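Inputs:
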Amino acid sequence: MTAGNLTPGQLEQALRDIGARRYHNLHPFHRLLHDGRLTREQVQAWALNRYYYQSRIPAKDANLLARLPTPELRRTWRTRLVDHDGDGTGEGGIERWLHLTAALGLDRDYVVSTAGILPATRFAVDAYVHFVRDRPLLEAVASSLTELFAPTIIAERMSGMLANYDFIDRAGLAYFEARLTQAPADADFALSYVLENATTPERQQAVLAALRFKCQVLWAQLDALHFAYVEPGLIPPDAFVPAIGRS
Amino acid sequence: MTAGNLTPGQLEQALRDIGARRYHNLHPFHRLLHDGRLTREQVQAWALNRYYYQSRIPAKDANLLARLPTPELRRTWRTRLVDHDGDGTGEGGIERWLHLTAALGLDRDYVVSTAGILPATRFAVDAYVHFVRDRPLLEAVASSLTELFAPTIIAERMSGMLANYDFIDRAGLAYFEARLTQAPADADFALSYVLENATTPERQQAVLAALRFKCQVLWAQLDALHFAYVEPGLIPPDAFVPAIGRS
């Protein structure tokens, strides 16, 4: 814990340090996924569960947008809704994610129903949506700052998955391709907002805690996938059961 | 899914069937715990995390009580607050739980801080508190019906832990001793309420779903403990790290 006031540069460094130690690219499941050491069924389980996260991002962003005080701030944040939900002329991130689950052989209606996701996925994702709705606006914005660390993981994800899984092609990874430009723009704005508004030691500690919380949300999702589908492989009641031998 | 209207007897049976297939006494971690196959450190991790669940039960019950319409119903539900928080002349369940964590050698302030719990524990427990706050009252009451299944697990827990762990004595299990009489009384009331008020197929399906949800809340907590402290043993950042070699 840092007790005194940080300069904007120090605060940014403290935020980046959280990513360096807690972002989910450090999770063993991430390594297995991108080094090509998972079966098609295990990748299905990941994409199926991650769909729930994708599907709730617009709810998270709408909760945040509702609390922004000016048209300028709301317009900027609104681009996130367009990015995920599309705008009629182009499809959004959720639809792109469904390309990936389709490429993996998952039934669209089953994915959209979220009937087969792990309860732990639902609890973690809902915790994020509730955090953004219920905590002070500054903390809500800060919790989005995992996007600072996204470009690295996305680039690693795309190259690793293309190289290692013959059941995934570049079209299936359109979601990530779009995020390579969207995430940095979103992160730049959120970081500027946080650095401008976290002007007391209390606020600075709160934004650091918000980012740690968000890292926990992402990490816990990989914990649950690893537990159910890798080791020890204990799938909870009702969750997705891979079709054995289809790999 | 049952589509038609159930008699009260059929609905009760359907509720009990959920317990028979989804209650957390079926989880591998429960077996390890009560068959004496865990180390003292693993039992510490369980008690530490379970403290967070205990500590939030009065918040859950206060959310529910706030929505009950009559003094009679609120008086009945209020006994749960007394059971957990005490009444000045006698200690409550939360204090009794702290006897257990103390008997296990955990620092009281550390336990109460909840700084070392697994994020997945927090997400699951908070999901329960939010469910009771946000869902229709009938579903909120139904989600408490896991207490129908509690006497079995408590009896098994007490005898198993006393027989298998020399670091736990009967005084440390005072929480469970009290629950042996409290849980059935609570469950009887909640079951009567549910059977009287779940009078349409839609409501009946909703109460069954609420009980399944609650079973997921309990199950997910043992999943997270098993993953972090048994197999594969991947403890998330900041969570409790057992002192090696103190068993």
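The domain at 8-229 of chain B is CATH 1.20.910.10 (Heme Oxygenase; Chain A). Flag for discussion at group meeting.
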